[in-house]
Design a protein that fits this description.
The complex is a heterodimer of chains A (261) and B (168).
Chain A (H helix, E strand, L loop, with lengths): L5 H19 L8 H29 L5 H6 L30 H22 L5 H29 L3 H15 L10 H8 L10 H14 L21 H16 L6
Chain B lengths: L1 H11 L12 H4 L2 E7 L2 E6 L8 H15 L4 E5 L12 H10 L1 E2 L35 E5 L7 E6 L5 E5 L3
Parallel strand pairs in B: 2-3, 4-7
Antiparallel strand pairs in B: 1-2, 5-6, 6-7
The chains are: A mainly alpha (261), B alpha/beta (168).
Chain lengths: 261, 168
């Protein structure tokens, strides 16, 4: 069996844990009770997926590696997640006192990401790395629910009131450029493609475009133009927002190394 | 060995889900196998949702129950094939319904015809009969509920809300 490069597993795990952490910020702050529960559930699924991937990576690294060390004791430049996922929940509304948390931004991001992951996990079920394929088969089932949830709300917002439409479009315009990062394989992704453990993301682009176009048309939202900017989060070059996110996520574990409770 | 395997199945049969205490781990499809391994007895379990917080409790329960019965065995967590609600037994589904949780209706989330093509409009809503009054006139409140495995529904006849164990 070909093994996926550890950095490929970490890229997938970091994606899940960083978005899981962002979604957890809504816990107790959801716009309605059902959505509070929904985002906590999606967050929990993502953190669960990250755990499976970190455990697998740690078991292959050996030595002192553990899921906790990978999640809590790596610094921001060692995280390989997409920049899209670390952006704050306030999105384009930053600066408005009432807009620290923008639900449209959260929903649009979940939609853009889960539309990719439904396709990626589906293909990864055939990974030459059997352990990764097993995680993909589980994660796919969860990603489908995440996609339906975010698409439903995207359509409600876009095809809703004037205000909800404007905010959904603003969130989409703001986040769209960050999806460019999906389509340019890193050297780690190239290595995973070469040994059959990974998927060439470029082969998913057409299906992703169709999926997104379908939902945007129903939501009466306009697809933004790409602007040539390609973020480099998966190479470890992040926005400043990741550092603050990790500061909050890692501080407890770092204050009490190897603590158990 | 065969008699130990039979006894292990027997003592593990008393173990129920920590969140839904009416259904056993076997009926849920979490307890996959009890078998003779290279180094003795092996009990195989499989996780449900990746982030389900009950899985740690379930593994502890399995270990404690085996120790209490004086059965030496290692507990193996196996990811593939991935757990699916298709493995839930009919008696388990009936117990869920009697407890007030609507059991999963259709095939697992992975086995349907919509695996490749996802279309957003219009999706045929799943008909989930009310576990209280049996009415099929029910509506989805939210795809996510009190635990990872449940959605929230409402009966439009008896007007009661209820949990739905959704297909996985």
């Amino acid at each position: 069996m070909s093994k996926a490069p550890n950095d490929y597993l970490l890229h997938l795990a970091d994606n899940a844990v960083v978005l899981g952490q962002r979604l957890a910020e809504w816990c107790g702050h959801g716009p309605i009770l059902e959505e509070d529960l929904a985002l906590a559930n999606v967050s929990l699924d993502l953190i669960g997926q990250a755990r499976l991937l970190y455990q697998l990576t740690a078991s292959r690294m050996g030595g002192r590696a553990s899921e906790d060390r990978l999640a809590y004791f790596r610094d921001d430049s060692e995280f390989l997640n997409y920049t899209l996922l670390e952006l704050p929940n306030h999105g384009p509304l930053v600066g408005y006192a009432a807009a620290e948390m923008d639900y449209a931004t959260t929903i649009v991001r979940n939609f853009l990401y889960s539309a990719l992951m439904v396709l990626l996990w589906d293909e990864l079920q055939q990974s030459a790395d059997a352990d990764l394929a097993a995680i993909a088969a589980k994660s796919l089932k969860e990603a489908r629910y995440h996609l339906h949830h975010s698409a439903d709300w995207l359509i409600k917002f876009g095809d809703g009131t004037e205000e909800s439409h404007v905010r959904a479009q603003a969130a989409l315009d703001h986040l769209w450029r960050y999806t460019e990062e999906f389509w340019t394989p890193s050297s780690t992704e190239e290595a995973a493609i070469a040994n059959g453990s990974g998927v060439d993301v470029r082969s998913l682009r057409q299906a992703w475009d169709a999926l997104v176009a379908d939902a945007l048309a129903t939501a009466t939202l306009k697809r933004p133009e790409a602007r040539g900017y390609i973020p480099e989060g998966k190479h470890g070059r992040h926005s400043e927002h990741l550092s603050y996110l990790l500061g909050e996520m890692q501080s407890l574990a770092r204050a009490h190394p190897d603590g158990n409770w | 060995m065969d008699s130990t395997i039979a006894r292990a199945w027997e003592v593990l049969e008393q173990l129920t889900d920590p969140e839904i205490p009416v259904i056993t781990l076997r009926e849920l499809g979490i307890l996959r196998d009890v078998r003779a391994g290279k180094d003795g007895l092996e009990v195989v379990i499989t996780p449900t949702y990746s982030g389900c917080p009950a899985m740690g409790q379930i593994e502890d329960d399995v270990r404690a129950t085996l120790v209490e019965a004086g059965i030496e065995a290692s507990v193996i967590t196996q990811l593939a094939p991935a757990w699916t609600t298709d493995w839930m037994t009919d008696e388990g589904k009936e117990k869920l319904r009697a407890y007030g949780i609507a059991p999963p209706q259709c095939g697992s989330a992975g086995s349907g015809g919509d695996t490749k093509v996802i279309s957003f409009v219009p999706r045929k809503p799943e008909v989930v009969p009310c576990p209280q009054c049996g009415s099929r006139n029910t509506t989805l409140i939210s795809q996510f509920g009190s635990t990872a495995c449940k959605a929230q529904y409402r009966c439009l006849d008896c007007l009661e809300p209820f949990d739905y164990f959704k297909p996985y």
